[in-house]
Amino acid sequence: MSTKRMYIPVEEAAKEWFKDPEFVAAYDALEEEFALAEALILARAQANMTQEDVAEKMGTTQVAIARLESGRSMPSTRTLTRFADATGTKLRISFVKEKSSLPKRQSGVKTLARK
User: Fold this and answer.
1) pLDDT tens series, the chain, 115 aa
2) Is residue 73, in this structure, part of any structural domain at all?
3) 0.70 exceeded by the pTM?
4) Distance between CA atoms of 71 and 75, rounded to whole angstroms?
């Protein structure tokens, strides 16, 4: 006997989630935490490479690349430079004004959008 599961589209769920001020605060806090992970994934995607491809060029393992892209680690600038070299990009580090004084940033990676 099979059970048919009902799924709710993430966009529909997000509409409800963003009505909750606690959710919005937590979501905004995570945005900065995962900005580096987003940049790594975007650089790899734009280079049309797999994690295995990047790992091979960096002389490391796919697991190490997955860890970098998870957003749960804080890699050294040396590691980030090696990642940039492997993906044919250049590492740029900058300081920007606080988020409240800047418009919402845009990127090539899809994220949940407030509606």
Assistant:
1) 556 767 777 778 788 888 999 988 888 878 776 889 889 999 999 999 999 999 999 999 999 999 999 887 889 999 999 999 999 999 998 888 876 655 555 544 444 444 4
2) yes
3) no
4) 10
CA distance 105 to 102: 8
Residue 72 to residue 87: CA distance in whole angstroms: 21
We report the CATH number of the domain holding residue 24 as 1.10.260.40
Q: Is the dihedral of CA 102, 107, 111, 115 positive or negative?
A: positive
Split into its structural domains, the chain has a count of 1
- Whether the Cβ atoms of residue 48 and residue 87 lie closer than 8 Å to each other: no
